[in-house]
Amino acid sequence: MIDPLFLEGIIKILFVFVLISAGLIISTRNLSSILTSYTIQSFLLAAVSFLLYLIDGKSQLLLLAGLTLGSKVILIPYFISRIEEKIRIGRDIHFTYLEPTTSLMLSIGLIILSYSSLSKIFEGLPLSKLFFFGAVIGLSLTLMGMLVVFSRKRVITKALGYLSMENGVLMFGLFVTELPFIIEVLIVIDLIILVILTTILAVGMDSSIEEYREKVRKLQIWTGGEFR
Amino acid sequence: MIRYYLLIMGIFLAFGLIPKSHRLMNALAAGNGLLHLVVSWVALFMLDLPVRLGESLYMDHLNLYVELITALGFTAAAFYARGYTDSLMEEGELDPKNLKTFYLAFNLLLITATVALFSDNLALLWIFAELTTVCAAMLVAILSARENIDAALKYVFIVSGSMLFAFLGLIFLFTLSEQALGEGTLNWTELSVHVSEFSPALLLASFTSVFIGFGAKAGVAPFHTWLPDAYARAPSVSAILSGLMQNLGIYGIIRMYALLRESSAAPHASSILLAAGVFSIALASFSMFQQRNLKRLIAFSSVEHMGLLLIGIGIGTRLALFWTLFYMLVHVLIKETLLFSAGVLHRQYRSNMRENMWNVFKLQPRAAWSLILGSIAIVGMPPFPLFPAKFFILLESAAISPYLTLAVLLMLILAAASFANFLFKAFSKVTVEEENEKDRHMASAHVETGRAELKTPTGKADYDEIRLPNQYIVRSGMRVPAVFMLALALSLGIYFPDSLRDLLDAIILELGYV
Amino acid sequence: MNTSFLLFALLNPLFALLAAPLYMSLIRKVKAYAQGRKGPRLFQVYYDLKKLMKKEAVYSPTSSWVMRFTPYLNLSTLLVCSLFVPLVFVPEPAGGLGNIIVFLYLLALERFFTALGGLDAGSAFGGMGSSRSMSLAAVIEPTMVISFAALAFVLKSLNLHQMFALTAGKILPISPTLVLVSISLFIILIVETGRLPVDNPATHLELTMINEAMILEQAGKNLALLELAHALKQFLLMGILINTILPVGLSTEIDAGKIAVSAFLFLLKAGLLAIIIGLFESAFAKMRLFRLPAFYVMAFFFSATTILIEVFA
Description:
The complex is a heterotrimer. By secondary structure, chain A is mostly helical. Chain A has helices at 4-27, 31-56, 59-87, 100-121, 129-151, 155-176, 181-206, 210-218.
């Protein structure tokens, strides 16, 4: 058996790297690096739940780690990388509302915000410090993912931001309480469906392939506000 | 039970993939809607409500009522869809290959919405509400034009992203129940029994997060931004269906509010609802004013009504809830009428814009009249049932603050004026020239240079259209649902059936309002 | 002032002064190997310094006393700094020496005068380099402050001597957070010593120069002093990093044998770090100047989250 304190120390380090990966998703311009950051983030999450398993010994956590590994580290990134190849663009350099530097600064604010709000909400709960902080990281990860969805232009990046949000929710759930495993499975299924849908649609939006341009010209009639 | 339902419906969907003819696919979709309508009707009268079937199926008056509204809307939409999709395909806007996907998503949407409504488990509600978003987004994107896809993606990202916050709220609830009961649960029925033991702060936090999620689903400002796009850019049928899904959001909010009504967090929750409601109404009514796009106008009107529903829930009295529930039904009836007619007009003019509409009474007299009647109904004029609903909600809101009532009333008037403004300007033109003429006077500088040179490329296109006024032939079956919905609304306004009143009373009783 | 500290004050700066240039050339050597060249001799920097020392300093006619003063000031500042970072053994703390805030201010002083010296010569390059250096300093300074704050928080002291007395002799870092702090420190090391991907120390290409541009006008003895000061700065930052992450062998007692072992081990560890830096530099391309703030903010974000987690969790 490994010393739990040591494991907690490792988990703390993983926290920082989870946040860093979220920061990278916010600020990186290269699409494949964003995907890599997401994959690493999911992997870190799987690692966290595995470490929690080592501390707690609940087999559900092990299952969760396996599920995360299978779906979010292997399946979804593989699928998205296929799509990225297909749309033949490598970079997402457009930001709306927020430049990456600003959003990174904002994220620090978000972390502090979620810390202060959660410390008020969880006053009565018997959460250990580490678990409480896990919840804080989860919430801030969700908010940072939201920032990505807001500030990025490309659909693929938005989808990755959404996925990172979902990772945050998973992390939050991991540390606050233990949800029934079946719910986790359903969420993952939901996630996969969403990813498939958005990425397929993303091919239409992000693509630089000529045939999509054709389609767009043909159906300008649905533009609504812009059409006169 | 839900498992069996899903199994049966899965078989049904697989069966629905077989037919090649549009007529059959459409008939299946309509049959599906009718089936749900009839079954929930039967359940409403035959079963001793509330009833729990199996592990997670829970039926009470509220979810049966919402299911009835949803199924009714679906059935009407299915009848309308036949002619509408036909003409979409004729124009080459809808790829016939996508027709199967369309009906698949159509049926799937009803099924997922049904499961979401009837599940006792909050997590199931959440997941299936998410799936309805996916299906509705598929319907919005069905034309696979860039604008549609854009709208669909906006829909998915805003609603699903907000739904993740709702999931955070569920985690809060689960923790609460774990504390109070020793073992966590997400069942409505169990939660509502033990809600008094929960900590108010956490309960409020959970309400707020759930509200963000379901509020986004309902299209409440500031999470409404997906709604105008989904309405304006998607084909009318898809708009109707995603509009129906707004009720699902309201359903979740009603449930959640009823849950914490007894705790000390209720006043805060109320004020959240009222604030969001007023904000929605304000934002919607100011966006509606001078709105030139018909479908956007209708969309913002939806936001406005959702705001009013939130106020109705937030007031928290029996009477307000009663009329709120009634409002949900009538709103769907009238909104569908409007969208059906707007769809016809879009087919005629190939545009939702006011300035492209001319000689409406000559070209589409019926659509024009149903649009006018629908507008009268939606702003809450007396013969129509939205009048008493709005009236009583506003009356009840005066108990909270008369200023609130006054502000809401003023904004409702603004919304009504926007409808009138739109209709006058769009329907009073006989030729396209008139409005363009006006524009020219405003731009004045160029007026003197003479008519001939003034033809901008768009102006020229309009001119050509005048030369060739080809009337869009409304297909059979497209008018029926609009007329039916409008007639139903009108009759509800004139005669309020006792059975409906009993039903609404039963819902209120079950939710714990005494 | 006790004897232990006097000994330290004698040994530590001497050791730093002697060893520092070695690692300048070691990094160059590593980079050369990575590029498939043979590279200069290991003691090349010493020869260069010796050669420069013999040459006379040439001043531009527009320059003032600042340019003459800067090299001496820089070297003496860094020699004072070297009293702050225990390299051969950790003495008893004495006076304000070892205070982390003073240390940061001394580094800032050095940076400030380097920039002034760059401006003073009146050449376009010097001015450009100074302006770049100052605007980037404004972004990296908060990161530095916050990383050192994290270090101080984890090791529960504001005094570098006390901090390293705590870690001295341990094989592994005492808290996992120190690993994260070390990453921040590594980034600071890269940035402060003007290495790739921030600045290229090997180039005199006008468009990319930052650090080199400021000392472009210096010659002879003065240049030697500045180079030496630069090497010393790098060595001291390396020292802090090494003492944080790999304190093994650092002695706390005054014992000739132990001091020798500790100095020897330090040379080895620094060699390892220099190799890592060399490889790191080879792996990256120079970043565009306008991208640098984003990079620095990332570093800031990193250190800020570290300190947040350390303080709150």
